Amino acid sequence: MDTLAAYKEHLREIGKLESALSLLNWDQRTNLPRKGHPARAEVIGKLTKMVFSLSVSDKLGEYLEKLQGQDGLTEVERASVRVVGKAYLRHKVIPPAFYEEYAIAAARSETAWEEAKEKSDFELFKPHLERMVDYARKFAEYYGYDESPYDALIEEFEPGMTSAELKTIIEPLRSELVPFIKRLMEEGKRPKDGFMQGTFPEEMQRTLSLKALSAMNYDFDAGRLDQTVHPFTTTIGPSDVRITTRYLPHNVLSGLASSMHEGGHALYDQGIPDDLRWSGLDEGASFGIHESQSRMWENLVGRSRPFWTFFAPIAGEVVPQLSVVSAEDLYRAVNIVKPSLVRVEADEVTYNLHIMLRFELEQALITGEINVSDLPGLWRDAMKRYLGVVPEDDAHGVLQDVHWSSGLFGYFPSYMLGNLYSAQFFAAARREITDLDEQIAGGKLSELLAWLRENIHQYGKMYEPKELVERITGEAPNSSHFVRYIVDKYTDVYGLR
Ligand code: ZN
């Protein structure tokens, strides 16, 4: 077998193991009986180790080295060698013993976090978090960086992004949004939503989600919708991209938004072409680009006036009490802004401020400007400054997110970038599909999807996020489209002048 064929076969082996892992993980988070968890954890551990050793094996290193200098590769093959090669070097520099030590400490830290959150006791979590910060710094040293150790960590989630660049992107966001939110709250007229109160059976909510996903052209022959506690989307393998969601008994819109969000992730993965399968390129360009797809369908489409023009009669059919509510009132009700303590409950106006706060704190932790013991106080200060609300306990403050407990630093910015990219992409789509609003109002969402397929999905991981954004929009990633979108929309919804 020649090197290229052997290389492809090696990636297919990894791909098949990862497919099994995805199925085991999906099952664990949807259907697995409680008593089955310990054994499942062992099986997952075993497979994870197998995948890891194949991804850093000397054999793969040899293939990559030979192929890097080889002529006659197709564009996809060259991209595959570049992307897989980069990941290979990144993983190879981590000593296996160090990684194992970290993995054990991270598992303990997560357990400690759960207890600390439950008791709202930061002191219980503090020593673990200190350890996780230390590990993150060591990872950064192994990976290497030019300016800031934090950059080495972002690279995992948003290749090519740096903290310096993030600061430039964030600055206008902060200076525009913080005063705008204050104005909304003080001068704006909050939409009414009394008609949304009630109890909504799961089956009803599921029907509503299925209707929205069908309208989005999610392919149910290549996926399915299930329930879970923390919704996620997972690709089990080619033509098997599954969505999970959750339904709150008293909030019918929450489950719908969650399904449309995950549906956006799923459309991305369903749109990755077969010739990228198991090539190292069969995933999104980055966490941020992936999030741009989910946020676009959840917010720019799902919380838009045209969408509710189309969807209100459908919602009224499924949820009888909504049948007497006008499309306009429903549109306004799904766009209520409320500065709150908890990120995952935040509306699209305040959401990025939650991320900004986390970004500032975590990069200062990694560079050593602040200490773990300063966190609870700094958190409260920043909440007051940005959102005007202050948590009464750490469970609703610094302890609310799971990420840091397992050493995930550099992840949060992807959420914010996803929002910014989504607005930047949507503005580009709107330039090219001139009657986009009319199409959405008519329930025709296929042309937007075709645009996303053409410009984003078909490339999988072939381009780095910045390159992709520039190719599509002609501009570097920036926050101006998002700010304009938010200010225009909510000036109208809240009747500001
Ligand atoms: Zn998401």
Task: Give a verbal description of the structure.
This protein has 20 helices and three strands. By secondary structure, it is mostly helical. It folds into two domains: 3-144, no CATH class; 163-493, Neurolysin, domain 3 (Orthogonal Bundle). A three-stranded mixed beta sheet has the order 1-3-2. The longest helix is centred in the N-terminal third of the chain and has 28 residues, at 3-30. The structure holds zinc ion.
Ordered list of secondary-structure elements with their pairings:
Blueprint: H1 3-30, H2 37-55, H3 58-68, H4 75-92, H5 96-119, H6 122-143, H7 149-154, H8 163-187, H9 202-215, E1 225-227, E2 233-237, E3 240-245, H10 252-270, H11 287-301, H12 305-318, H13 327-333, H14 351-367, H15 375-387, H16 412-432, H17 436-441, H18 446-455, H19 465-473, H20 480-493
Parallel strand pairs: 1-3
Antiparallel strand pairs: 2-3
This protein binds zinc ion.
The site of zinc ion has 4 residues, from helix 10 and helix 11.
Task: Using the coordinates above, name the CATH class of the largest domain.
Answer: Mainly Alpha
Class computed from helices, strands and strand pairing: mainly alpha
**Structural Rg:** 23 Å
- CATH fold title of the largest domain: Neurolysin, domain 3
Query: Please, what is the average pLDDT?
Result: 96
Head-to-tail CA distance between termini: 70 Å
CATH architecture of the largest domain: Orthogonal Bundle
Helix content: 55-70%
Bound molecules: zinc ion
In total, the number of strands is 3
Q: What fraction of residues sit in β-strands?
A: under 5%
Which sheet architecture does the biggest sheet show? Answer: 3 strands, mixed
Number of helices: 20
Give the strand order of the largest sheet, numbering strands 1, 2, ... along the chain.
Answer: 1-3-2
Q: What's the SSE pattern?
A: HHHHHHHHHEEEHHHHHHHHHHH
